[in-house]
C-alpha cells in the first residue's frame, strides 16, 4: 500500500486551474480500485492519496500522470508500507508480510 503525499509547488490559484483535471484523474483510479481515500491536507498546502494493489513502479507512473504533476504545481512523496492491520472496510487490502 502507498501513501502518496503531494505538496503544492505553485500558488493555490495555479493549483485551482488544474483541479477539474486532477479530480477526473482521481475518479479514474477510484473506478479502477487503485485509490482508496484522498483529500486535502490541513493547512491546504497539498493532499494525500492512499493507494493499493499496484507496484512501486506503477504508483510512480500514476503520480507522474497526475495533471497537477504535468502542470508543475505539485511534488509527490510516496511512502510504501505493509498494511498488516486495517479496519473491516479495508480488509481487502490487508497484507501479510513474508516471513
What distinguishing features does this structure have?
33% helix, four-stranded antiparallel beta sheet, single chain, 99 residues, 4 strands, alpha+beta
Provide a concise account of the structure shown.
With 99 residues, the chain is α+β, with helices and mostly antiparallel strands.
| Total beta strands | 4
What is the tally of helical segments?
4
Average pLDDT confidence is 94
Rg, alpha carbons: 14 Å
Helix content: 25-40%
Give the neighbour order of strands across the main sheet. Answer: 2-3-1-4
Spatial separation of the terminal alpha carbons: 18 Å
Shape assignment: elongated
**Which percent range describes the beta-strand content?**
25-35%
Return the structural class: alpha+beta
- Unreliable runs: none
Order of helices and strands: EHHEEHHE
Q: What is the oligomeric state here?
A: single chain
Major sheet characteristics? 4 strands, antiparallel
Topology:
Elements: E1 2-8, H1 12-17, H2 19-31, E2 35-40, E3 46-51, H3 56-65, H4 67-70, E4 74-80
Amino acid at each position: 500500500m502507498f501513501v502518496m503525499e503531494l505538496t503544492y509547488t505553485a500558488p493555490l490559484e495555479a493549483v485551482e486551474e488544474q483541479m477539474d483535471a486532477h479530480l477526473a484523474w482521481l475518479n479514474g483510479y477510484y473506478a479502477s480500485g487503485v485509490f482508496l481515500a484522498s483529500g486535502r491536507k490541513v493547512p491546504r498546502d497539498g493532499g494525500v492519496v492512499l493507494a493499493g494493489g499496484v507496484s512501486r513502479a506503477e504508483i510512480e507512473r500514476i503520480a507522474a500522470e497526475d495533471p497537477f504533476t504535468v502542470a508543475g504545481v505539485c511534488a509527490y512523496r510516496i511512502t510504501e508500507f505493509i498494511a498488516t492491520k486495517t479496519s473491516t472496510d479495508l480488509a481487502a487490502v490487508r497484507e501479510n508480510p513474508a516471513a
